[in-house]
Design a protein that fits this description.
The chain is mainly α and 130 residues long. It has five helices and no strands. The longest helix is centred in the first third of the chain and has 29 residues. It starts with a helix and ends with a helix.
Length: 130
């Protein structure tokens, strides 16, 4: 019965991972909507990043790891793009760093073209600031 119990545990973990992914995706999709954000400057993009990073930390061997990683990259880029001028440069650098991590971990990703697009846009901004 041990093998059956372990299989059930893995199935339940997969469902938890999927729930976390859907939660992170929802935060990303809500984007600029601030009706559910606190008054301390929180945003849905930050919530997406935190939710996805926590899921990767809690379930490091998930088959959705690549999906979480591109979601984090996209959210960091959107957060940078919609930031106040004082925080934009730092946040674009964070998005660029996230791109390099994504590229190293998933060199043959199905999302590589999308990741490259975010990288190029972030680099445009950073170069204009120099």
């Amino acid at each position: 019965r041990r093998e059956i119990a372990m299989q059930h545990i893995f199935t339940l973990q997969d469902l938890l991972v999927e729930k976390e992914y859907l939660s992170a995706k929802l935060y990303y999709d809500l984007g600029d909507y601030f009706g559910n954000c606190s008054n301390d400057g929180g945003s849905n993009y930050q919530a997406c990043i935190i939710t996805a990073e926590n899921a990767i930390r809690d379930y490091p061997y998930t088959k959705l790891r690549e999906d979480f990683a591109i979601l984090i990259l996209k959210a960091k880029f959107e957060l940078a793009e919609k930031s106040v001028e004082a925080k934009k440069e730092e946040r674009f650098h964070n998005a660029i760093d996230e791109y390099y991590g994504f590229r190293n971990e998933f060199p043959d990703s199905k999302y590589i073209k999308e990741a490259d697009k975010y990288y190029k846009e972030a680099m445009k901004f950073v170069k204009t600031m120099e």
